[in-house]
Amino acid sequence: MKLKLDIDPNIVAMMAAEVAAGERAVTAAMREAGTGLKTAWRLQITGAGLRPRLANSIRSQNFPRSGESLDAATLVWSKAPVIVGAHDTGPLIRSKDGFWLAIPLPAAGKSLRGGRITPGEWERRRGLRLRFVYRRTGPSLLVAEGRLNTKGQAVVSRSKTGRGKVTAPIFLLVPQVKLPKRLDLARDVERAVDGVPGLIVANWVEVRSGL
C-alpha cells in the first residue's frame, strides 16, 4: 500500500508566517528586556548617589546585531566593571603592599586626574613632606606642617614668623576598609528575566494581529 501526502501550500505559507512572527516577537522582546535592564541599572546607580558618568558606563548590545531570530539575545554590561562590581558586592579592601590605606582628608584636596589623591602626588604638588603620626586609638595619620588656604587645603607657609602655620592632618591611615554595598544588580536581572516570557507573548500577539 502506498500513501501520498500532499501539503496544502496555504498551510506551508501559514507555518512560515508563524515562524517569522515568532522571530520578530522574540527579537523585539529581548531588545525591550535589554533596554529595560540597562535603564534599571543606570537608575539604581544614580539613585545610590553615585556619579552619572558611572551610570552611563552601563551599555547593552542585541544579538543578532541586525535581523531577527528565535535565538535572539541581549547583553548588558558595564565599561567600569571593577567599580560597579565593588559597589554591588561591598568588598573588604586592603592595601596591595600589606601596610596602610591612605584616605585623603579635606585638607588634601583632589587629584589632578580626578578622584582621590595619593600621598606621593600630594607631596609632589604641594612641596611639603608628610609625617607619620601613630595613634594608639583611632586611625594613624599623615600630617604636614604648613598653612590652610581659603579652601581649607594645606599649602606651603611663606611666613617668616611662622604665623598661621599649623600641623594639618592630610591622610587617615587604616589597614583595611569595608566598602558599603550600595547596589543590588541581581535584583534587576531577576526581574528582567522573569519578564521575558510575557514580552515575547505580547510582541507575538502584536505581530500576529498585524498579519
Give a description of the structure:
The structure is a single chain. The chain is α+β, with helices and mostly antiparallel strands and 211 residues long. 40% of the residues lie in helices and 21% in strands. It is built from five helices and nine strands. The protein has helices at residues 9-47, 52-55, 81-89, 119-126, 185-209, and strands at residues 58-63, 73-78, 92-94, 101-104, 131-133, 140-148, 154-155, 166-174, 176-178. The strands form three sheets. Strands 4, 5, 6, 7 and 8 form a five-stranded antiparallel sheet that branches. Strands 1-2 form a two-stranded antiparallel ribbon. Strand 5 (131-133) and strand 6 (140-148) form a beta hairpin. The longest helix has 39 residues, at 9-47. It is rod-shaped and about 115 Å long. The two termini are 41 Å apart. The mean pLDDT is 86.
Secondary-structure blueprint:
Layout: H1 9-47, H2 52-55, E1 58-63, E2 73-78, H3 81-89, E3 92-94, E4 101-104, H4 119-126, E5 131-133, E6 140-148, E7 154-155, E8 166-174, E9 176-178, H5 185-209
Antiparallel strand pairs: 1-2, 3-9, 4-8, 5-6, 6-7, 6-8
Task: Give a summary of the structure in a few sentences.
The chain is an alpha+beta fold and 211 residues long. It has helices at residues 9-47, 52-55, 81-89, 119-126, 185-209; strands at residues 58-63, 73-78, 92-94, 101-104, 131-133, 140-148, 154-155, 166-174, 176-178. It contains 5 helices and 9 strands; from the N terminus they run ααββαββαβββββα.
Name a few traits of the molecule:
alpha+beta; 9 strands; 5-stranded antiparallel beta sheet; rod-shaped; 21% strand; two-stranded antiparallel sheet; 211 residues; 40% helix
